[in-house]
Amino acid sequence: MTLAPQRAVPGSGADRAEPPVALYVHVPFCVARCPYCDFVVLPGAAARGPRNRVADYVDALLAELRLRAPASPVGLRSVYVGGGTPSLLPVADVMRLLDAVDAAFGIADGAEVTLEVNPGRDERGEPRAWREAGVTRLSFGAQSLDASELRALGRRHSPEDVLSAVTDARRAGITSISVDLLYDVPGQSAASWARTLDGALALDADHLSLYALTLDDAVGADHLPLRPGARRWRERARAGQDEDRAADQYALAEDRLAAAGYRHYEISNWARPGHASRHNLAYWWRLPHEAVGPGAHAFDGATRRWNDAAFEPWLAALAAGTLPPGGSEWIDDEAANAERLILGLRLAEGIPVPAAAAPGLAWGIDTGLLEAAGDRLRLTRRGRLLSNEVFARLL
Ligand code: SF4
Description:
Blueprint: E1 22-27, E2 29-30, E3 42-43, H1 54-68, E4 76-83, H2 91-105, E5 107-117, H3 127-133, E6 137-143, H4 147-152, H5 159-171, E7 176-183, H6 190-202, E8 207-212, H7 228-239, H8 243-259, E9 263-266, E10 269-271, H9 278-284, E11 289-292, E12 297-299, E13 303-307, H10 311-319, E14 326-330, H11 333-346, E15 351-352, H12 359-366, E16 370-373, E17 376-379, H13 381-385, H14 387-392
Parallel strand pairs: 1-4, 1-11, 2-3, 4-5, 5-6, 6-7, 7-8
Antiparallel strand pairs: 8-10, 9-10, 12-13, 13-14, 15-17, 16-17
């Protein structure tokens, strides 16, 4: 078995490695690729139809789980099946996957088990069967509740599809539902954003993730190359974005969601009591997490590791009984401290007030982007809007 491409260098932090508390599983299939998407995605014929690669993928995934299994079960507190469009997976494969995760890592009683869902009628899957398989939480990629914005984003579903998909999930007994929305979308007005927010509140979701549309061109072996058509789409879309409008949209969301009883627990995430994403909290708290699937990223408390994005080499390595190609980076003390500050400040709880503030923190306090609250230091309302200005000074 070949471990070399991803093994942390002995003596450079491997001794600080800890067992994972969470597992990310990347499912790369989508019916079609959205032009703004930078995730590792295999669209079209690979996802379904006579030439689909789903069975090959699931076999390889189970092999990777076995290869990455710890010496003894760790009792994962969270499993997150993300993508891509995991809701395209046949129910039998979701069951096999979760059984294999339990066999390899152990899933703790009461663990959060999330599956991402696209709301389209032909891609939303079977929430009742997933619940019976052990899924506890569904995350819906709604993105907007405005039909013209969904079309502009290249999405296949309608606002009515979001409503019916969430309603079906509730009826199936899913007790934790998250909805993703995008703002700073070209053509989005203040009024259409307000309608989308109101529509999302009417869905009665337990958790909302709101992200500004980002149109950066990701690079590196853990990403797939950008197609020329998507690059042209992004150039046009960037011209339709507006920082001031985005700031107003964010402020409106903060006010409306607070009034509706959601806690703004992280810069881009709001939750009802008891529904904060345990999986994402593991990332923000820098807890060790394992990851499988093409392009997936893991962290063991000392080293960040990733699989390359390319599907065929990932598949071929696992079919041969070896770990897939990828890379790793040991996080030295300086980088770890910067990560702790940046990830901690993303959260509403902030960070403990340091005995000696780093220059970037002092700058944040002087400019009113950071404030002390008791023994904690956190972003102010303006600081949440300009968080990248603070974070850049902490690196
Ligand atoms: S559905 Fe989601 S993962 Fe798939 S291409 Fe669109 S944005 Fe990317």
